[in-house]
Amino acid sequence: MKVYNTLSRKKEEFVPLEEGKVKMYVCGPTVYNLIHIGNARPMIVFDTVRRYLEYKGYDVNFVSNFTDVDDKIIKKAMEEGVSAQEISKRYIAECKKDMAAMNVEPATAHPLATEEIDGMLDMISTLIEKGYAYPAADGTVYFRTRKFQGYGKLSHKNLDDLQAGHREIKVSGEEKEDPLDFVLWKPKKEGEPYWESPWCQGRPGWHIECSVMSKKYLGEEIDIHAGGEDLIFPHHENEIAQSEACNGKAFAKYWLHNGFLNIDNKKMSKSLGNFFTVREISEKYDLQVLRFFMLGAHYRSPLNFSAELMESAKSGLERIRNGAQNLKHLSENAKEERMSGQEQEIWEGSQAFVTKFEAAMDDDFNTADAISAIFELVKYSNTNVGGDSSKELIGNLRQRLCQLCGILGIIAEGKEEILDGEIEKLIAERQAARKEKNFARADEIRGILLEQGIILEDTREGVKWKRA
Ligand code: AMP
Ligand code: ZN
Prior knowledge:
The structure is a single chain. The protein is of the alpha/beta class. It has helices at about 35-55, 70-80, 85-100, 115-130, 160-165, 205-220, 230-245, 280-285, 285-295, 305-335, 340-350, 350-360, 365-385, 390-405, 420-435, 440-450, and strands at about 1-5, 10-15, 20-25, 60-65, 135, 140-145, 180-185, 200-205, 220-230, 250-260, 260-265, 265, 305, 455-460, 460-465. A hairpin with a 5-residue loop joins strand 5 and strand 6. Helix 6 packs across helix 7 (about 230-245) and helix 10 (about 305-335) runs antiparallel to helix 14. It is globular. The protein starts with a strand and ends with a strand. Bound molecules: adenosine monophosphate and zinc ion. Zinc ion binds near residues 27, 210 and 235. Adenosine monophosphate (AMP) binds near residues 29, 38 and 261.
């Protein structure tokens, strides 16, 4: 299996540090709002990488953090007049709901930065002892970037070019020895959350969080470190500097980065305001469609979001689901139990699509080609299976189709769930019917929703609904 390593800028043979085991860390979101579908891209693609590694027989220890202390979280908390913790707790819960709806498996561990402060204080102290970090007079602790020999090896940047970029932006009052030095710990400002430390009451810088959480949950050396390509510099470059300076060992063997999800060829981001939240998309589409859309492109390529591409993902997914549905139906009506000799050959012939699927995934997780192999399997099943086929052949093909889809986190036999948007529409129609005293229609709508497992409750604040 080959994976593209940002460190070497090459596809390399994947050889884990320990046979049969993979230690993998994916940088998680900063939780101050609902996640957008750009944030969903690394979640979906690296969940797929994990599923494929598991399919290959690896025992995967998959860690993904939540950054739950940050300027943006504090700002949001101040705007709402609540604590930063209340904001982060709320959006972690919402993020987990979105992840589940996208069929992203929970990580082995989801550490929170605020619960790992002791480890950060330890790592910062070690870096100071080793001469890689220093506290300034105001209590800020900086990393001494030039002291770390390998700085720039991931982003392939050279220190002098970086220095040139920094020349003009020396902030007055900053007490860095060098403009390239970055923050490990910073003093609190009035009203901000803080922790005691040997240097000042303050909070950690963002980069140190991941170095510490990765070390605690996975050890000093890991196999895969991943995230969006915007994290290559400075976040991952700084993580490498901190971890390797502290531990004296290579930090991660393979660095994987997903390309951006764009809108009109611009990166989707909160700051540009050009985003759709996963929640918004879930009102229009089953989130399996979003997953299918994302996996239709190679994870390193930029991917442009558009209504047309989502519609085409929707019909592609339907084609697969119809194929699975057809097999299910045929299996229920099959008369013959066991495969005939000719059917045995048909079954063996379908192995070619598994081989094709694996070859695609072994080539740096080429999910687009893996999906093509699934389409071919659907077509093959449709042409080779019919009313006379045996239960065994149909069952085998059905299982094969579901298994390949499952590796991509696609539920082939999933039933279409009624969408939140449709539920709201029906509830509004029911309210209108009641207003017009058309109680028969109102009851009918309640019945339609109940059939879909949606329970309505009339309360003083209006109609509430839940899924049974
Ligand atoms: P953030 O909450 O901004 O730290 O982002 C969480 C994760 O989402 C990181 O891995 C980012 O690289 C990734 N990410 C953010 N925006 C996009 C985008 N438009 N396309 C792909 N990945 C993104
Ligand atoms: Zn990180």
